[in-house]
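Run log, item B.
One chain of 150 residues. Sequence copied directly from the ordering sheet:
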Amino acid sequence: MRLPRNSLVLVADGRKMLLMRNNGMADDLNLTVEYGEEQPNPADQEQKTDARGQKPAGGTPGQASTEEADYHQLTEDRFAARIAQHLNAMALRNALDPIIVIASGKTLGELRRHYHKEVQAKIIAEIDKVMTGYSTDRIAQMLMGQEERV
């Protein structure tokens, strides 16, 4: 994939994000991290404080939940929303260059829910892959189609 000079690459999952810029040429990427953030997200059972809700006698819908909230997933969704808000702010002040988004399918879906149309217009590609633990060189190799198959 050709990534024009100064284009951005966002690598994210529910806990970590890296926003990188291509300082190299379109066919010889040189990714440098411009911004990164990581948030702790303890296991679901460590975040719970209350017992499961009780369904009222008579079963009136909407009054109580018998579903148990997945706090771990809620935290990941909020983090993805915050990433999208960061991109939205950049786009609305004309500071967002063309961007490739690399994230898990779940994170991609949550990001899409929160993108402003200005961000959507800047997205070159979305790649459904978890790469937050990879080096910038390995991410660049993957984008150029040179990643070795394991």
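Observations after the first pass:
- Residues 1-39+92-150 form a domain with the Nucleotidyltransferase; domain 5 fold (CATH 3.30.420.60).
- The two ends are 20 Å apart (CA to CA).
Flagged for discussion on Thursday.
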